[in-house]
Design a protein that fits this description.
Length: 179
């Protein structure tokens, strides 16, 4: 069994993201009193796709999807297909993305977040009803989420890298070795 720290980076990323999702859900509970909601799953899928090897990134996304579904009213596995699809697309084009620069990876995060938000909105709209109030509320949530991601995604990616470095994992060296 491989005992190098790099072999466990998927677990470190998943635990960090699970804690982050719990904190985000608490923030969303508080924001719900004023009809606000933040959706930043695009960041949680983009980081493993941009910075982890294929197997480890996929393991992190699978666990994250199951964890995310466990707190929602739909069945477990509902978010697995779109999350894995987004992960796979980003992973296979990451060689063309200069994701070491914030101005380059931010659009990747924002586009991923937009695609996942549309998926979950359609899922909710099918279960509930597409009323004008539903559409307006979801559009406002999308705008809020994208603006927050635009403002903090660079910081959150850097923070995830710092968490990996805390466990003596150099994510950039791992990325270069995987190429």
């Amino acid at each position: 069994m491989d005992k190098k720290p790099e072999s466990y980076q998927w677990l470190v990323v998943f635990v960090f993201q699970a804690i982050f999702l719990v904190l985000l859900s608490q923030l969303n509970q508080t924001l719900a009193t004023v009809s606000l909601f933040l959706f930043i799953n695009g960041l949680l899928i983009s980081f493993p796709a941009l910075f982890l090897p294929l197997g480890q990134g996929m393991a992190s996304v699978v666990l994250l999807s199951i964890f995310y579904d466990s707190g929602e009213s739909w069945s477990i596995g509902t978010s697995l297909a779109p999350n894995l699809l987004a992960f796979t697309i980003i992973y296979h084009v990451r060689g063309r993305i200069r994701h070491d620069k914030r101005r380059v990876f931010k659009p990747v995060v924002l586009l991923t977040n937009l695609a996942l938000f549309i998926y979950y909105t359609m899922l909710a709209g099918v279960r509930l009803e597409f009323t004008s109030q539903f559409v307006f509320l979801n559009l406002s949530h999308l705008l809020e989420s994208q603006l927050v991601l635009l403002a903090v995604s660079g910081w959150l990616i850097a923070y995830q890298k710092e968490v990996l470095q805390m466990f003596k994992i150099d994510v950039d060296a791992t990325y270069r070795a995987a190429e």
